[in-house]
Specification:
412 residues, alpha+beta, Elongation Factor Tu (Ef-tu), domain 3
Length: 412
């Protein structure tokens, strides 16, 4: 059993000297420092998890099965615009104030449909006056014809009396002259009746001018006037007078006009098959054909204008849209079949990662990288294998997009 001296020595050795003691308050701060570091680490981890789970906005495109039309090779490409062969700015043939405008942009109209009306008070008054003149002329004609009939009866009686020597020859001649005079008056008055009738027709035409109608079936693409404005076929008043009510376009007359470099115009000919891709719908190929080559060149641009017809009408095709036309070497044939597993996707949907071509297929709210083998190009489309027809792919995937990323989709 240790002695009392040994116990005192042991207790003395366990005591801390002044240089070994921590300053007052230091020990109380250490838990707060550790807690702060832990909170920072937790916030960083939460931020990383949030960034990984945040949805990336993407646009979707659809892989298309290759059709026979892609069997033809494009030998030339040119850019141009959609144009309408039948387009009219509808206006009045007389000057007047608009009392009604019955059209809006985008409205489809039929030939003869009323588009606007002008104030017709003056025309109605002129028509009523013409009708009154016609009625007066007819009444006078009836009166002259009645007098002529009476004169003709008197002439018959005078002729009978003259044969019996009861009246003089002069009286017979007077009766005959009266008949001829009234007959001439009747003919003249008949011309007056016809003139009055023509006046009615002229007044009716002027009245019809106050009603503005559609010249053909089409769509209103511009509304240029409002109710209360003055419209005139001739601009006047320093630009305050409108010259048109609206513009009508026959959508069935839409075609494409492209400028082809004159050095390559020998590759284009009438009825040549072609394909058109609208700038607004780069994933949509429209079958087309060459209508004609306009026989003149633009010396300032060294180009020749070519008219291209659209084989499939579609409401998405609008006037003045930008378009790119690929002129094909030959028309598609029955032998132009699609290879097994080949689909067409926009070239922008294919990206290269670590030396491999990839597309990102959308499944639900996430994307999955698919390795593909890229083939030949057809305009903006490229033939690939590795995905199925109808698959929804990401258009132009960015560097942030990785396999399994969550996305929000805009597109088909």
């Amino acid at each position: 059993m240790p002695s009392t001296t040994d116990k005192s020595s042991l207790l003395q050795s366990l005591r801390l000297g002044p240089e070994q003691r921590e300053p007052v308050g230091t020990g109380s701060k250490r838990p707060w420092i550790i807690a702060g570091v832990l909170l920072l680490l937790a916030a960083a981890a939460a931020g990383v998890l949030f960034l990984r789970s945040a949805a990336i906005a993407v646009q979707a495109v659809t892989a298309q099965a290759r059709t026979a039309s892609e069997g033809s090779t494009a030998i030339l490409q040119a850019t141009g615009y959609i144009t309408a062969r039948r387009e009219a700015t509808v206006a009045a043939q007389i000057t007047g104030t608009l009392t009604a405008v019955l059209i809006e942009e985008g409205e489809r109209v039929r030939a003869g449909q009323v588009l606007a009306r002008l104030d017709n008070a003056a025309q109605l008054a002129a028509l009523a006056q013409a009708r009154a003149q016609y009625q007066a002329a007819q009444a006078l004609l009836v009166q002259i014809r009645s007098q002529l009939m009476q004169a003709q009866r008197d002439l018959v009686r005078s002729a009978d009396l003259e044969e019996r020597r009861l009246v003089s020859t002069q009286a017979l001649e007077t009766a005959r002259t009266l008949v001829e005079s009234l007959s001439a008056q009747a003919d003249s008055q008949q011309r007056q009746v016809e003139l009055a009738q023509a006046g009615i027709q002229a007044a009716q035409v002027q009245l019809d001018y106050t009603t503005i109608r559609a010249p053909f079936d089409g769509v209103i693409i511009a509304k240029a006037a409002q109710t209360g404005e003055i419209i005139s076929p001739i601009s006047a008043g320093g630009g305050f007078t409108r010259t048109g009510v609206g513009t009508v376009v026959d959508m069935d007359s839409l075609e494409i006009e492209v400028d082809v470099n004159e050095a390559y115009i020998n590759r284009v000919h009438a009825n040549q098959p072609a394909q058109a891709v609208l700038d607004a719908y780069p994933d949509w190929t429209v079958p087309a054909h060459v209508i004609a080559i306009v026989p003149t060149a633009d010396r300032s641009k060294a180009t020749v204008k070519v008219r291209v017809g659209i084989d499939q009408k579609d409401p998405r095709v609008l006037p003045d849209m930008g378009v790119r036309v690929s002129f094909l070497e030959r028309a598609p044939t029955a032998g132009d079949v699609a290879p097994a597993g080949g689909v067409l996707v926009p070239g922008s949907a294919i990206v290269s990662r670590d030396g491999h071509d990839l597309v990102f297929e959308i499944e639900g709210q996430r994307v999955h990288a698919r390795a593909v083998v890229a083939g030949p190009s057809y305009g903006d489309l490229r033939l690939v294998t590795g995905v199925e027809s109808g698959a929804r792919l990401v258009r132009a995937p960015g560097e942030r997009l990785q396999d399994g990323a969550r996305v929000t989709v805009a597109g088909p």
